[in-house]
């Protein structure tokens, strides 16, 4: 360390110029004499193999030019480590939820001293996405912590449930996850003979809606709340009648969450092959939906969606599209590639245009309109220890 304080880079005049003495000096750890010059001789006596030239394998050893990864005006992407597009898409959707991001920043990041947790790892990634100088960031801190095999793709819905449960476990008594995503619903079952009504309350973090036979996401959601007939082998046991009877079951929302996640059931099990397959039904991406909350209609607007590209339920590629809550701009996040995309509701201005249909839509996030309007434009601030780059912290 003392040598670094006293040494200065050598210049050409500090060295002999004979061909036999072109060496870096051993006493100066900052000597870079000869760096960039050509070494050896090629065919015909010409010098070849420049140190920074087009030498096969050299770029892999030296790494990419850092200037190529400097962030511009667009948000940062997340590098795919092999088959981690499902994780990158989930992280982008969570990050662009400003209410979740702000609550995460305010949460104590570690437990048991300095031990890394899911919360502290997610804080680091969020801070890098928000104030870092790089155009693409890494998710290594999460894959290492969770022991994820980066070459194995997972279902973002199944992984997301486990991941959010882990976040809730880490935050303990803090309820910010439930405050943002959790709603309450009631199953009402009416007996067809005595007309007795029984209720069963349950929490929910997402609506899992069937898409077969529907033309839009809005239709899928409306169909989800249609009454269900319980008859035949699926009869209901009425306690008042003391026997199995035909009945009608209805789902009602008691408390609608601020952010409503709608999961399209694109993956189903084939009863012939008994394997999971993907439904390729193309449906319209509804920009706004209405949810009945105890008899009151609540408006929700689309704020993010995840697309699955590919024919198989066991492979393919996941891409996220998210709305910036401060600017209302939409971007597509395809791993480390970030592009501006049109807002899903732009077609509403032209009645001649039909809403676009997609066979790739997989998961959609809708935000409660009045709740969002009260928070739109609010800035978030990463914890000081998590900031990198743009706020003066060490890169």
What does this molecule look like?
Helices cover 22% and strands 27% of the residues. It has 10 helices and 22 strands. Strands 7, 12, 16, 17, 18, 19, 20 and 22 form an 8-stranded mixed beta sheet that branches. Strands 6-5-11-8 form a 4-stranded antiparallel beta sheet, with no helix packed on it. The chain is elongated. The two termini are 20 Å apart. The C terminus is likely disordered.
Share of β-strand residues: 25-35%
| Percent of residues in helices | 10-25%
Count of extended strands:
22
Distance between the termini: 20 Å
Shape: elongated
Tally of contiguous helical segments = 10
Oligomer: single chain
Low-confidence stretches: 36-42, 50-55, 347-351, 387-395
Overall pLDDT score: 82
* CA-atom Rg in angstroms: 28 Å
Structural class: alpha+beta
Biggest β-sheet strands, sense, barrel: 8 strands, mixed
Give me a quick take on this structure.
This protein is an alpha+beta fold. It has helices at 2-6, 58-62, 85-95, 98-105, 118-131, 140-146, 156-171, 176-181, 217-224, 369-373; strands at residues 38-39, 48-50, 77-78, 136-137, 183-191, 197-204, 207-209, 228-230, 236-238, 243-245, 247-255, 259-264, 267-269, 276-278, 283-284, 288-293, 296-309, 317-323, 330-334, 337-341, 357-358, 361-368. Helix 5 runs antiparallel to helix 6 (140-146).
